[in-house]
Each structure stands twice: as structure tokens, then as C-alpha cells.
Amino acid sequence: MAFISVTYTFSNGTIADAGQVNQCFTDIINGTSDGTKSFNISALTCAGTLTANGNVVLGASSSNTLTFNGSIGSTVPVSTNSTYDIGAATTGLRSVYIGGTSTFTTRILGAATVSYTYTLPTTAGTVGQFQATDGTGVQSYRYVNKPTAVQTGTYAATNDESVILVDPNSIASFTVTLPTAVGVNGKTYTIKQTSSGTNVVTIATTSSQTIDGLASGVFKIGQQFDSMTVMSDNTNWRVLGSYPLVQSRYSQTTGQSINSASATIINFDTLILDTITSVTTGASWKFTAPYAGRYALRARLQFGAYAGNITESMRMDLYKNGSYFCNLGWSYAQTTSSMPKDVWGTDVLTLAATDYVQIELTQNHGSAVTLSTAPDLNYIEIIRLN
Length: 386
Fold this sequence. Notes:
By secondary structure, the chain is mainly beta. The protein folds into 4 domains: 1-64, no CATH class; 114-143, no CATH class; 155-240, Jelly Rolls; 247-385, Jelly Rolls. Helix content is 4%, strand content 34%. The chain is built from 1 helix and 29 strands. Strands 17, 19, 20, 23, 24 and 27 form a 6-stranded antiparallel sheet that branches. Strands 18-15-29-21-26 form a 5-stranded antiparallel sheet, with no helix packed on it. Strands 7-9-11-12 form a 4-stranded mixed sheet, with no helix packed on it. Strand 3 (95-98) and strand 4 (106-110) form a beta hairpin.
């Protein structure tokens, strides 16, 4: 765009008539009002309202600095949709505030130390959904709980899901590994078993982090529809709600021989139910508590038929960590005839994690006596009370 020019030029010592002078004034007036001329003014102060009609360009390049001491007093319309930006990839606004009162003013961007893109969803979402980021600034609508597909093999949890569905039937050693609890304070996971079967799911952690103070791999899920919910405290994981079900039931079906006048550990050798594999079978049979808590125990034992007398007895005792804890039952023979003799009992006790219990049986027949092989008459059942 050209600068303003005049028809006549005057110099000192020359004479100009009024028509020439008037023509130069006319040139200046026309040049400032026809919108086709440029001004080159080093400093301009307008004391009052300035109205600039037509297309207005402020600054010759991005290196020019525009300083606003006043405030915006009107709506700022945009001429073309989705065409212009405020700022650039390396120079952006520090903060943007939305609203105008102490209640509703919101700072939606501020003091970013790195460049990032914040992409809003393209739809309005559905009732009950909220916005969540994918970790790169891309927002999407989802419900509070986002489940995975049913996992049929070892799975490493990500920060994206909140419900992990598992089916361990196709793999005996099935582990769900939680990510680090650091930096995700309040993040929760619910691990839920969807299938029936005897395989268990082990819950593992990373970086030696704990779950309620217990090491990685202690917590297990072994029952269909059983579940466990954990939450990050920014350092480790905490269990929310109930612990996974702990229930074990075993029977003695091999007719174990019980020596006279000495306690014998009962080997409940036949599995009926063991939700998270808490029992070790064999000559030193024991149930080991996976988690601290109160446990209910009941047991019953019966000798096979033998000829005894009324001075004989059988005693069933509960041992905890290898030491006598309490007597569960004591049975005396009521007849000298050949007949089964049995004993049963129940108890509730507090166990710490890794505490173990055993059942010992004593009889005084004078020689070894064998247990019957009936599974419904020779069994133990232990369950953790949530």
C-alpha cells in the first residue's frame, strides 16, 4: 500500500498560490480517508476513541510487539471458522481464565513447562459419563468403571482400565500385575474372576510395593464371581472392602492309622474346596492363613469299627504354629462292642498372615486304630470371616 503524496512541493523562498496549497490539503485529506494509503508514524497517541474502519493490520511481522493496557470491551468475533490460532507451538499464553466472578472464574491453562495438546471430545457424551484423558491430552467420555475384555492369560494392568475380568481356567499359573502405585494416588482396580474351576489368580505388584502391607503375590482370587478392589495411596496399594474369600475343605479318605498314646497330625488328603490354595497336605498337613483375620474352623473324625472298651477315649486338639491351642473335642467309648467312635468340634481364632493350624488326634486303645474312609465323617473346613 502506497504512502500519502501531494501534487505540489514547496521549498523555502518560493511563492505558491492558494489553489496549489488547497490542492495539497485536498491530497492529504483524501489520502487519510480513502483507505488506500499507508501511514508511517513513529509514535501516535490518540486521546479519545479511535475508530479504524475496513481491514486493519497491526504490526508488520510476528517480531513486532503489541501492548494492551486497557481491557476488552466487546465480543471478539472470528471471521473464518477453524482457521486462526492464539500463540504458536513454542510461544503460547501462560493462562486463560473463563468466567467473571469469584464463584465461576476458572483457570483452564496455566504455567505449562512443556508443550502439549489438549483435544476435547467431538460429541456431548451420555448421561453419567465423564471426561478422561488417554495420557496424551486426548479426552473422551466414559463411565466411572472401564472394564477390560475377559483375560485368559497373565495380564499387566494399565492406567486406562478400572475393572479387570479374568478367566484362569486355561492357565494354571495366572497373574495380574498392578502398575506402580506412585503418581496415581486414588487410582483403583477391581479384579473379578468370571469362571468356575480350581485355578487361582495371583495379584502381583511392581517395585516391591505391598498390598495392605503384604508382599506381592500373597493375595489370590480362587472362586467364580469373587473379586478384589485395591486403591493406590501414591506409595503402595490398599484393599477396599472385603478381602477375597478364603475357604478350605478337605477330607480324610485313606483310613489313616493313629498310633496309641501319641498325638498324630491328621492328613486331610482329599481336596473338596480350597479357594486360594492355603493347605499343604502330607504327614505335616497344615492350613496357612494368607491374610490376617478371624477364622472359623470345624472338624470331625471317626474311627472305623473296632472292639474297644469303656476306658478308651479319643481326643482331637487344635495346634497353632506347632503349639497346642485348644481342645476341639473328647470322646469316650460307651460300650465294649465293635462300633465306630467319633469326635468333632469348632472354634474361631485370630490368625496373622502366615500363621498355620493343624489337627492332632490321640487315642489310648493300646494299639494303632485306623480312621474310617467316609469323607463326610472325616473332614476339616476353615473359612476367613470378613
